[in-house]
Write a structure and sequence with these properties.
The chain is mainly alpha-helical and about 500 residues long. Helices cover about 55% and strands about 5% of the residues.
């Protein structure tokens, strides 16, 4: 005869008297039963009141097969305390393997008294026969009983594992998107956790894995390496001799400083997973034939290490577009050397629409690409149009704006509020016509505080006027010479003694 009972958790004197589990069959001393949780489907982060949870269980005698009531045998307080400490140690080690720092793992343990009790209860369930004969468990037996269980929880809950531990027995109910997405995301999270665990795992000799030690010697820190494993889990499994070391030595042979290696690997860890001879070197030869400066590979790779990880077809598609825009092979080589990340831009979704926008303003796209290729990585709606409208709203024609852009494409890289507007307001106080900015839009590229204001004040003090480009583009020595020459010229025109010394 099957017996069913509704049990309030508050009815039990101790968490050790009932085994809480996520729907799994569990044993408690002489009895086994299955717990069924009733959680709301809606995602909630707040914990439900513990005493109000109701569990349904079916109980039977585990050994005799006779279903009915069950009894629990108590463990001595001293042994129970020792087992709790062992369970804490196992859980701490497990959490640290998942990438948690010692501090965070300890903080989690301090919040997890109920979960620790649950782990001890599980020990009693797994090794009930040992307790019946009064035999204590060894540390190894405790680990062998608990670690597989923790791993099963990790596989089930992924990034929510810490929440499971801290909020036990209130399992964190995840948000419920479409079923395939849950499965995919859970798999991705699990891969990330395993990768982080692998790069931080201490081996039998008490050391980190060889490839991690090698990276630490290069100047990387463990947090950086964990960050790479989180973003790109495959990196955790690259062999030292087969992938990482050959790539590093190849970069060093190209002239990349050792101090730059950590930054390069952090930016693009995929470099270590690509064949040097089948992919990276052929791509480099292809780019060198286009005019990429061989002597500048170290700077190019540091600036944009992803360049060497793109397929030949991807690179060729961008190069073909540059040819289409009228750039020569020599200019293309210079563009790729100066702005290698242009390869990452989609031709149809980014480069071509941007080129069409500039064409609508009357800009020579080929010239702009050769002078300011970085502008083609900007958003038309968020960056380009607001700047165009800024100048249009201040009385410049579209043709004049096109001229300004052709001469100084970097205009679009400046912030409206922090750069263009303040400099425009000061320009209105200067004795220049607005056409000066069409001739010399580079004005917006100079510091207002360190260059524009002090030089303009000095020029006004001398009572002369220089062209805007003379005011700003000359070196300090040449600026002083230009001022002195202008002062002498004005003095001669006014009939003053031209030999009079002028102090600037």
């Amino acid at each position: 005869m099957k017996a069913f009972c509704a049990i309030r958790v508050a009815d039990f004197a101790s968490p050790l008297q009932v085994l809480f589990s996520t729907g799994r069959c569990c044993n408690v001393n002489d009895s086994s039963f299955k717990l069924t949780y009733h959680y709301p489907l809606k995602f909630v982060r707040t914990r439900l009141a513990f005493p109000q949870k109701i569990f349904i269980c079916r109980a039977r005698f585990a050994d005799s097969g006779v279903e009915g009531s069950f009894s629990l045998k108590l463990v001595s307080p001293a042994l129970l305390a020792a087992e709790k400490e062992e369970a804490k140690a196992v859980l701490t080690l497990f959490l640290k393997k998942q990438g948690l720092s010692h501090t965070i793992a300890a903080r989690t343990i301090n919040k997890s008294e109920l979960f620790i009790d649950h782990l001890v209860a599980r020990l009693h369930s797994v090794h009930k026969s040992r307790y019946l004969v009064g035999r204590e468990l060894t540390t190894l037996e405790i680990r062998e009983a608990l670690i597989p269980y923790l791993e099963s929880l990790l596989e089930e809950h992924g990034i929510y594992m810490v929440d499971v531990v801290e909020s036990f027995p209130d399992a964190p109910v995840k948000e419920k998107p479409a079923a395939p997405v849950i499965k995919s995301q859970s798999s991705v999270d699990l891969k990330k956790l395993r990768a982080i665990s692998r790069v931080s795992e201490i081996g039998p000799a008490g050391k980190l894995p060889p490839h991690i030690l090698y990276l630490l010697e290069l100047g990387m820190d463990l947090d950086q390496i964990k960050g790479i494993a989180r973003r790109f889990p495959s990196f955790a499994y690259y062999s030292l001799e087969g992938k990482i070391k050959p790539t590093v030595e190849f970069l060093l042979d190209l002239g990349v400083p050792k101090s730059d290696i950590p930054t390069i690997l952090f930016k693009r860890p995929q470099l270590c997973g690509i064949s040097l001879y089948e992919n990276i070197m052929p791509t480099m030869r292809f780019l060198e034939n286009l005019g990429v400066d061989k002597k500048k590979w170290a700077k190019v790779i540091y600036r944009f290490p992803a360049l060497l990880t793109y397929s030949r077809q991807k690179v060729k598609t961008t190069v073909d577009f540059l040819y289409e825009m009228g750039l020569s092979e020599e200019i293309i080589g210079k563009v790729l050397t100066r702005c290698p990340n242009i390869i990452s831009y989609s031709v149809e979704e980014k480069l071509r629409p941007t080129a069409e926008y500039f064409c609508s303003l009357g800009v020579d796209v080929g010239v702009l690409l050769s002078r300011s290729p970085t502008v083609f990585g900007l958003s038309i709606e968020a960056n380009l149009k607001p700047v165009t409208e800024f100048f249009y709203g201040r009385g410049y024609t579209m043709e004049e704006i096109g001229t300004m852009i052709s001469r100084y494409g970097a205009l679009y890289t400046f912030s409206l509020t922090e750069n263009l507007m303040p400099k425009w307001e000061f320009f209105l106080t200067m004795d220049y016509s607005k056409s000066e900015l069409v001739k010399f839009p580079q004005y917006f590229g100079y510091s207002l505080v360190e260059r524009i204001k002090p030089r303009y004040a000095l020029m006004k003090e001398c009572g002369v006027m220089l062209l805007l480009n003379q005011l700003l583009s000359l070196s300090a020595a040449n600026f002083d010479k230009a001022l002195k020459k202008k002062i002498e010229k004005v003095a001669a025109a006014n009939g003053d003694d031209p030999d009079t010394d002028v102090e600037i």
